[in-house]
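can u do me a favor
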């Protein structure tokens, strides 16, 4: 099937939640025993595309899941997340912290968007930023496929923002969950491999 050529003037690479606290062995999730090799491998898998887009002058946007400190410094955590991840504590994913930052392998990024829920559009400045800088298409990579990635892609869809999901640039805590989530996103936007998009960007 033929696809519309990528226009780097109106396309951004969106790095969803590729943060130290999620991925680094010193981060909060590794401390809590929550990791997966597919997730750990993502930054270096995505890096060639990020480097090429950066070299071509395209925009790199990173979303950063953030636990906002409440009274006394304890993080404000949604009840469902507290049940799923009881190991989260004060300082994890805190604004401005090392754990909250995008991993070094994907730096530098042009725009950082703090997020507090699965979707990067929920109560964030992401849509405002995209409209202001003229971005109408997102290449989406990151974690987790069935959570932040899926929610963000669906929210982009209802806002008429075109998306291309990088199938091997996303991961979940199990390959089966990842595959199911990818299949569910095929009606919403294009699904492509990093190699395919590298070729498209080279031709842009």
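np, heres the sequence
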């Amino acid at each position: 099937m033929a696809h519309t050529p990528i226009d780097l003037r109106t396309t951004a690479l969106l790095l969803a939640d590729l943060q130290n606290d999620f991925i680094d062995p010193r981060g909060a999730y590794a401390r809590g025993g929550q990791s997966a090799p597919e997730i750990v491998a993502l930054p270096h898998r995505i890096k060639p595309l990020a480097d090429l887009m950066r070299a071509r002058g395209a925009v790199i946007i990173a979303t950063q899941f953030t636990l906002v400190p409440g009274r006394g410094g304890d993080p404000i955590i949604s009840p469902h997340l507290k049940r799923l991840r009881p190991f989260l504590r004060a300082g994890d994913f805190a604004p401005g912290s090392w754990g909250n930052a995008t991993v070094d392998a994907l730096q530098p990024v042009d725009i950082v968007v703090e997020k507090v829920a699965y979707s990067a559009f929920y109560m964030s400045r992401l849509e405002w930023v995209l409209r202001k800088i003229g971005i109408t298409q997102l290449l989406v990579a990151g974690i987790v496929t069935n959570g932040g990635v899926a929610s963000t892609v669906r929210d982009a869809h209802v806002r008429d923002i075109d998306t291309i999901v990088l199938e091997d640039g996303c991961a979940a805590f199990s390959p089966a969950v990842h595959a199911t989530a990818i299949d569910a996103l095929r009606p919403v936007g294009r699904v492509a491999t990093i190699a395919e998009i590298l070729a498209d960007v080279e031709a842009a």
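The chain has one domain: 11-203. hope that helps!!
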